[in-house]
Amino acid sequence: MASFNKTLQTQRFDDYRYYHQSRINQTLHLISAVIFLVTYALLFKDPAMAGLLGWLAMLTRQTGHFFFEPNGYDAVNDVTNEYKEAVKVGYNQKRKIVLLLVWGMVPVMLFVFPTLFGLFAEPTSRMDFVRHVGLLWLAVGIGGGLFRVIQLFAIKDAATGLIWALKVLSDPFHNIALYWKSPLALARGELIDPTIKDASHWGAADDEVDAEEAAHLT
Questions:
Q1: Is the pTM for the entire model greater than 0.85?
Q2: Confidence check: pLDDT of 200 > 80
């Protein structure tokens, strides 16, 4: 259990210091986290709406990553962008682009094949079409997560995949706890989080060697 908790904390620590330096990105993650909590509440009551909201939350998050995070050499952590992408066990930028392309193809596919070869009833209204899109988006989101977990089982081990899945599912709660002050900092004109240089408040990276040698799961 101690090893499990340490690995999970290492995932979160790397995620924070490598991919969430921008206060704009942090604020967008805060908004996204709140939307995800609503999505969780709707998941079993209205899956189609959960799928629509879930991808709204996802787009909010990825906007922060793609447009507001510093690119190139990471002087704060003294690593290259290539290194960060290589050690990211979850969805790095290349994998995210593939996932987003699949997401974007869903409404196009339903427009061309409204019943998706008999999977859905013929839509009788625009809302029927939208709800079908939401259901497929939910399937894409769940399927994308499961696909990566299975990949991690194969290329790493079961613990790696399960810990990453737990991190992803608990990210909304953790993001709210971590980034709730970010909008205030952004309002003061602070564009980059200065605390990343000294992350001792995490209490997770007391031993820098251990932090570097641990599996960098983000």
A1: yes
A2: no
